[in-house]
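Lab meeting, item 3. Inverse folding demo.
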């Protein structure tokens, strides 16, 4: 019986910490701040998660899983055009309530390029998983990588400028290129 309660408490704390990370738009929150947001103590966070890094990784993994679940192949009817999938992803990504999520993603990216091996490993795994999900709609791995990188760049521009349409235009151009009959298989012009 105590194990069930411990799991329930751990889940509650993880959810509260994830919400705090999203509100702040960064993983750089102190254990004191996280404990306050979760209405617990630092000691209990350490008890349930072993440390800050594990808590951060679990929170980001949960967030990524939720985002991908919304946009897995089953989320769209069979035969949904790639343009509709990409537009839906972009609209969701740039919705006002997604700002904290985008900022968290950029924070993780910053950690990766700043030399964090754990951050880099996590980032690479998330890239792999997102690419796998996108391949359900676009089988060409080169095109998937290009699309994923364009999404990431467009998200950065959106965060800096607030201009959603700029990213949508870039994505539309790429989708047009990918859909073009003049395109050579496996290559982008």
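The presenter then showed the designed sequence:
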């Amino acid at each position: 019986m105590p194990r069930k309660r411990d799991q329930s408490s751990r889940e509650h704390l993880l959810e509260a910490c994830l919400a705090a990370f999203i509100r702040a738009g960064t993983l750089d929150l102190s254990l004191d701040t996280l404990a306050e947001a979760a209405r617990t103590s630092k000691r209990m966070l350490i008890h349930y998660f072993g440390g800050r890094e594990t808590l951060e990784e679990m929170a980001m993994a949960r967030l990524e899983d939720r985002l991908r679940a919304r946009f897995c192949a089953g989320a769209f009817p069979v035969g949904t055009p790639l343009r509709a999938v990409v537009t839906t992803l972009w609209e969701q990504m740039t919705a006002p309530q997604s700002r904290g999520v985008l900022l968290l993603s950029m924070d993780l990216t910053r950690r990766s390029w700043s030399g964090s091996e754990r951050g880099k490993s996590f980032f690479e795994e998330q890239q792999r998983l997102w690419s796998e999900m996108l391949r359900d709609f676009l089988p060409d791995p080169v095109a998937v990588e290009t699309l994923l990188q364009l999404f990431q760049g467009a998200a950065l521009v959106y965060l800096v400028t607030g201009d959603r349409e700029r990213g949508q235009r870039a994505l539309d151009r790429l989708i047009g290129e990918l859909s073009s009959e003049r395109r050579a298989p496996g290559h982008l012009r």
